[in-house]
Amino acid sequence: MSSSLPPRLFYSSNRNLKRTVISTPTMEPTIKREEKERTFNGMSAEQITLMVCPSQFRQVYIKITDTIGEKFKEQGLKIENKQTVSGPLEVLINWAVTPENLESNFANMFILNYHTYCKPIQLLSVIDKICNDIVESKNEPVKTIKQKWAKITIFMKIWTDLLPYDFHDKEILGAIETFLQKYQSQFVGIAQIRKMIQAAQSIPHLPTFERIENSNGEEKTKPVKELTAETIVGQLSLYELTLFTGIEMKDFLGSAWTKKDKYERCPRLCEFLEHFNAVTNWVSYSILQESDINARANLISKFIDVAKIMYEQMNFTGFFEFYSGLNSSAISRLTKTWELVENAAQRMDPLRKAADPTRSYASYRKYIQQNKSKGYIPFIGVIIQDLTFIDEGNPDKTESGDVNFEKCRMMANQLLTIRPLQNDQHSIYKALPFFKDFILSIEQHKNDDEKAQYDISLQIQPRN
């Protein structure tokens, strides 16, 4: 093959790319000349290069200037390495529903974060404006119009799936109906969007106890020492799964659980966090209330069994609740009581390793990674830690006042691991007749004073 042939030059036929000259190694094409025009039509520069060059010369260097989203860039959208970095809020909403945007999960990431920047009624208003522009576009091909409506439908599907309670908001109800009626004669898919919204609105927004079947039994709970470890695990896991699945994604935004108005901003998450504290305090309280040393040792032994079962059944919030209670300063110092717990050291050692907080709970994270195909209740403490790290380390907006979408992406990556766990789990346990009284007896300990517990511990076993 002659080496005197000049480099082959051709142009990309992809309309989304600037017509950039691409140089390939000096080689004869491996397809016939008469096939070129037909074969190249609609192919990218990279595909053409791979076709015309033998395999040993396929390592080519192609420089292509990407022009996707050029109009949006002029409006302030910033894209680096094919990922959105920042942009004005309204531009990002438009970008989320344009057929040009091929960024994976962009709409999901935007929807999960939008409450940081606007209310549902404001988001719907921008979507309405975009739909109106589609209706008024006279010169665009029918195919393009269909693609735009399809993106609107996909966006609404993601919105109703991820944040169904947005469509319970009284402020937005009237606007939703106006929106649906406005476009029902313009777009046949509006009927599908109506069904999506109706499905979201049909999800009951009930208090936790009302979401659990047969949870209102009036029977009084038995003393904890009369309950088996399996019973404690079952009733708490049922309640904790219900708490976890009830948390709204917006509750995790902006470190809302640390704010003065936290009960308005993230009520379900606050309920879950307070329950965690209540169980931890209840574990310590229950042990300290036993005046007999053997009874205390037996209760510690039972709670070790509970923690072990919680871990095996992958209720990690429950596991850390009981481990934290057993490992509290008021309980761990009761050495004389621990001496009477059968095989205490051998039984606590695997729990201690599983709960090891070093390297940001590396042991727990590794176990989750190895068993991620199974449903589980995650440890809420690690979720809060990770979200706080992202929130405090990254501003919501750039210096120019645009939405910091890099932060949105990091937040969404965390939230997208939580949402599937909420959707795909059903408790294997049923509420027993004393379920409600049992849970309420624990919840009353959410504000227990650790110092008061430590003082009781000192009375049981004074310092040497």
Describe this structure in words.
The protein is mainly α and 464 residues long. It has 2 domains: 78-200, Up-down Bundle (Son of sevenless (SoS) protein, Chain S, domain 1); 222-458, Son of Sevenless (SoS) protein, Chain S, domain 2. The chain has helices at 33-40, 45-52, 70-74, 89-96, 106-113, 120-136, 142-162, 170-183, 190-201, 229-245, 262-265, 267-288, 293-312, 316-326, 329-332, 335-338, 344-354, 358-370, 380-393, 405-423, 435-443, 450-460; strands at residues 9-10, 22-23, 78-80, 83-87, 403-404. The protein has a 3-stranded antiparallel sheet. The protein has a two-stranded antiparallel sheet with strand order 1-2. Residues 1-66 have low confidence and may be disordered. Residues 80-204 form the N-terminal Ras-GEF domain. InterPro entries: Ras-like_GEF, Ras-like_Gua-exchang_fac_N, Ras_G-nucl-exch_fac_CS, Ras_GEF_dom_sf, RASGEF_cat_dom, RASGEF_cat_dom_sf.
What is the structure about, briefly put?
This protein has 464 residues and is mainly α.
Identify the notable features of this structure and list them briefly.
5 strands; elongated; three-stranded antiparallel beta sheet; mainly alpha; 2 domains; Son of sevenless (SoS) protein, Chain S, domain 1; 464 residues; two-stranded antiparallel sheet
Structural class: mainly alpha
What would you say the CATH architecture of the largest domain is?
Orthogonal Bundle
Mean pLDDT: 86
Query: Which strand order do you get reading across the main beta sheet?
Result: 3-4-5
Number of helices: 22
- C-alpha Rg, in Å? 30 Å
CATH superfamily of the largest domain, by name, is Ras guanine-nucleotide exchange factors catalytic domain
Largest sheet, described in full? Answer: 3 strands, antiparallel
Shape: elongated
CATH class of the largest domain: Mainly Alpha
Indicate the low-confidence ranges by residue numbers: 1-66
Spatial gap, N to C terminus: 94 Å
Q: Which strand-content bin applies to the residues?
A: under 5%
Element pattern in H and E: EEHHHEEHHHHHHHHHHHHHHHHEHHH
**Fraction in helix:** 55-70%
Count of distinct strands: 5
Annotated CATH topology of the largest domain: Son of Sevenless (SoS) protein, Chain S, domain 2
Q: What is the total domain count?
A: 2
